[in-house]
Amino acid sequence: MIVGAKTLVRAIRDDDLPKLVQWRNDKSIQQNLIGWHFPVSLEDEKLWLERVRGDRKNKRFAIEADSGEYIGNIGLYDIDFINRHCGFGIFIGDPRYRGGGYATDATIALVKFAIEELGMVRLWLTVLTTNDRAIKLYERVGFKLEGVLRHQNFRGGEYVDENLMGLLKEELITT
Ligand SMILES: CC(C)(COP(=O)(O)OP(=O)(O)OC[C@H]1O[C@@H](n2cnc3c(N)ncnc32)[C@H](O)[C@@H]1OP(=O)(O)O)[C@@H](O)C(=O)NCCC(=O)NCCS
């Protein structure tokens, strides 16, 4: 378990899946997440979890609030132990826990883990340029804009740009 000040980053459990199905089908979350989104069932998510549990390069975790509730997911992607970099991603599925600093806390905890325990020297992510809230969070913990991927995403009938952001290990802001 990775322990933050007000969150725990832990393995995703089978009993998390009903909430995850609800969030994955939630348009307000989907519209901010990169990638394409199809409706999913509990059975789909069970298969997804079985598949990702065996994945050594992409690690997905649950975020648990200090109340004990499962509130979202967080992960490290394309972990590269030679060049020592990996991708980062997060969502807070439960709207009651957005804007309360839980995302910031879990992000700091997992990025710190990636640097201190996995030896990563750089983390990177992409975020829709329309997602002000996520960009604010990433800047807050030290990610910097490295470039704009123009028209990288098609959604709602139009193309949207993505920001490529990166954080070098000495740039993490933990306060
Ligand atoms: C992006 C997301 C993870 C941020 O979570 P959150 O709970 O708002 O994050 P926090 O409460 O830790 O706040 C992070 C920062 O955003 C700011 N913020 C909160 N609401 C905001 C809003 N509506 N607009 C702009 N900034 C906002 C906070 O003030 C905070 O900055 P501060 O520490 O300087 O005050 C969450 O909104 C989410 O899951 N959204 C849907 C999925 C998503 O977009 N994931 C990221 C894909 S790249």
Description:
There is one protein chain. The chain is 28% helix and 35% strand. The protein is α+β, with helices and mostly antiparallel strands and 175 residues long. The chain has one domain (2-171): Aminopeptidase. The protein has an 8-stranded mixed sheet with strand order 1-2-3-4-5-6-8-7, with helices on one face. The longest helix has 15 residues, at 102-116. The model has no long low-confidence stretch (mean pLDDT 97). The structure holds coenzyme A (COA).
What's a quick, concise take on this entry?
The chain is of the alpha+beta class and 175 residues long. It has 5 helices and 8 strands. Coenzyme A (COA) is lined by residues 29, 32-33, 90-92, 98-104, 127, 131-134, 136-137, 140.
Task: Summarize this structure as a short list of keywords or feature phrases.
binds coenzyme A, single chain, alpha+beta, Aminopeptidase, 175 residues
Rounded Rg: 16 Å
**Number of helical runs?**
5
What's the total count of β strands?
A: 8
CATH architecture: 3-Layer(aba) Sandwich
Low-confidence stretches: none
**Measured distance between first and last alpha carbons:** 21 Å
The CATH C-level name is: Alpha Beta
Total domain units? 1
The helix/strand series, from N terminus to C terminus, equals EEHHHEEEHEHEE
Average pLDDT level? 97
